[in-house]
Specification:
Length: 178
């Protein structure tokens, strides 16, 4: 691993999708011991380096326990974990960044979580723009989150401010960008 970004991507893989890749198992809430993680990593990283990666992560993907002995990904797991997030009333509108090739399916099915635990939503247009830009020219969707909540949909907010829900039906979506 050459850069902090490479290390962060690898940590995302291990802590969200494949801890067995380096011989680890996450507990039921997605945590793993920091010492076990550092020992299993295929590149050198010490406690200070890990704390720096967690602190400097552009999207705040990871959380350390209060005592610093455990670490987990904040969201985005494809593994069965219970992040124990309380449900939260959402703001009136949330946003989602995607790309044009996914729009035909989104217009029919809405936003679906796929292999992950939740659909990820942003509180700001800027964040949705950044997320959508990862794969090309972004298409930004506004989600009528308050209306969804009124219709019985449940929302959560991860420690790093990402809004989560199980599904966004198409009737709650409006295209913001063309």
């Amino acid at each position: 691993m050459k850069t902090d970004a490479d290390k962060s991507r690898f940590l995302s893989l291990v802590l969200r999708h494949d801890p067995a890749k380096i011989g680890l198992t996450l507990d039921a809430k997605g945590w793993v011991a920091v010492d076990s993680l550092l020992t299993a990593l295929p590149f050198p990283l010490d406690h200070a380096g890990l704390e720096k990666l967690v602190r400097d992560s552009d999207k705040q993907r990871f959380a350390l326990s209060a005592d610093g002995r455990m670490i987990r990904a904040n969201q985005g797991h494809s593994l069965p974990v219970d992040l124990a997030l309380p449900s939260v009333a959402p703001p009136g509108v949330l946003y989602h960044g995607t790309i044009e090739k996914f729009m035909p399916s989104i217009l029919i099915r809405g936003l679906v979580k796929g292999d992950r635990h939740h659909v990820h939503l942003s509180a700001t247009l800027d964040t949705a723009q950044q997320v959508g830009s990862r794969r090309g020219a972004p298409v930004i969707l506004a989600i009528a989150a308050e209306g969804m909540a009124a219709a019985g949909h449940i929302f959560f907010r991860s420690e790093n401010g990402v809004w989560l829900t199980d599904h966004v039906p198409p009737q709650f979506l409006t295209r913001v960008t063309d």
